[in-house]
Structure formats: structure tokens, C-alpha cells
Amino acid sequence: MRSPLAALALCLAAISTQAIAQDKPKQLVMISFDGAGDNKLWQRSRDLGTKTNARFTYFLSCTLVIARADAKQYRAPHGKLGRSNIGFAVDKAEARARLTHVWQARGEGHEIASHTCGHFDGKTWSVADWATEMATFRSVLKDAWKANEAANEEPDGWKDFIDNEIRGFRAPYFSTSAGLVAAEKRAGFTYDASLVTKGPAMPEKKEGIIRFGLPLIPEGPSARPLIGMDYNLFVRHSGGFDDLSRSAEFESRAYSAFRAAFDKQYAGDRIPLQLGFHFVEMNGGAYWRAMERLVTEVCGMADVACVTYSEAVSLIGDHAKPAADSGL
Fold first, then answer.
1. Which among 114, 131, 226 is positioned nearest to 169, based on CA atoms?
2. pTM above 0.70, yes or no
3. What DSSP assignment string belongs to 11-42?
């Protein structure tokens, strides 16, 4: 039986731990999805958000709401008519289903942000190039219900949502140029999520744009750092080719990396943790399962908030640091 003194010591330790936790900010976790194509994964992610009270950011590519038959409606800066690095919707029915997911996700508290349209590398793009692609993104989304023969199904407030609620941007391949920030300001974006940081880091502020970076996190037996994103895990684990026989192993490695990155911040300075994913089940869905396990475990904790990037901007407030003059 525990002695009264031992019981008192444990009680005091618990009170002290609680007081320390109360002095810390909530641990923010931002889960994002690039492209946001596969309708089955739209539903799966939305179901996960409902189950765990997590809210996600979907960086949508606009060619995924253009039916393949209408591909020539789109041209990227310096690109060929009807060309997209990520393709188009198979048909108008698939595009309509995706539009429905977009609207329903927005109603559930998730965030829709921009990942441009055709997923091209913009490292040499000018301000005008970025501005053109950003304007195309909004115009395609605004007219998407009509273009997919569903004008009568367009939700009330859809166009206002496209004009006024899509405030975040992530460049494909995290590839930026000196013209990006100016174009983002011109297009009405308030934050950018195109950077990569050496580890979890507070966002920086450049010319009025809050700039987030996906962190490098330790992974694998040798704890070598890599970007906290499913594609980077996929390349490291199997060279970018599916190896279904090792799916469980890859899931375990990814989960261990995600959880260790979370635990370090949760026990430390509580810098927001960002992890990125795609609507592709690489290595048999290993990375989605690892993400779902993490989200299920941590998003219900009292001092954790799994939030969208826009919510993080509001919660972080003036704590964003001035950007170094990198030219980007």
C-alpha cells in the first residue's frame, strides 16, 4: 500500500505537471492534402475529420474539376492547350462528385485552398505567370457547376466562397520564384504553405503574407530527416514504386516518425506540427493509415487542436516572425 507521504508527492507532481501544461499553448497540428482528387479519399478524410474532430486543409488543383473532354479550356503559363501534369476529371459526373465533396467539406469546417491548376513547376514564373494561374484557378472553380452541366445544383453562396474564402496557397513541388509573394498578394491570398523548414518552425511573415513550411522530421532506423509528407516517405522507402509486401512495415515507420515529431513538440515548445499528404494510397495506403492512427490518437486530447491553416493563422496571431530576405 502506498504511504500517505508517497501519495501526497504523487498528487503534488500531478498538480505541478498540470500547471506546466496550462502555461503552454495548445499543440496545433495541421494535416493537409495536395491535389484532392480521388472522391473515395475525399469521403474517407471527411469521415476521419468527423470521427476525431479534426479539421483539414485541402490544397485543390483546379484541373480536377474540369472533365477530360473539356481539357482544352485550360492552358498553363507557357504551356500547351489542354495539358495538365495531374490530368483532369474522367468525366463530368466525377467532377460534380468532387465539387460536392468540396462544398460539404467546407460546411464541416475544413478549408479549401489553392494548389494552382495543372501542377506545373513555377520556379521560373514571373509575377504575371503566377497571377494568370491563380486567376484561372478562381475562374474555373466559379464556373465549375455550369461547366459540368449542373448549374441548377450550384449551392447558394458558391461564387462568394470562391472569391472570399479561399485564402491559402501551396505551390506544386514546393517550387517558388521571386514573383510568388507579389502574385499571392494580388490574388488575395493571406498565407502560403510552400516552404520547407529544417524542423517544425513558427511561420514567417513576408510583405503581409504568412508563410508556413512543412518540416524535416527524423525517420527510419538512422533517424535521417526528410520532409513530413507521404510522397517523400514513398520515395525513401521504395524508390517511388509500390511495394505492397512491405506496406505494414512502411506504415509502422511512418507512424513512428509522425508520433515522435508530435511528442517532441508536445513535450517541448509546442511549435505547430504540419504533415502533408496526397489523395493517393502509396505503398498500399501505408501513409494514410499512419496519418489516421496519429489523428485518432492526438486530435481528441484536451490541449491539442487539429486545425486548418487559416485557423492556425488566427491562433498564432502576431507570433509569426519576420521573413529573412531570401528573395522568395
1. 114
2. yes
3. HHHHHHHHHHHHHSPPEEEEEEEEE---HHHH
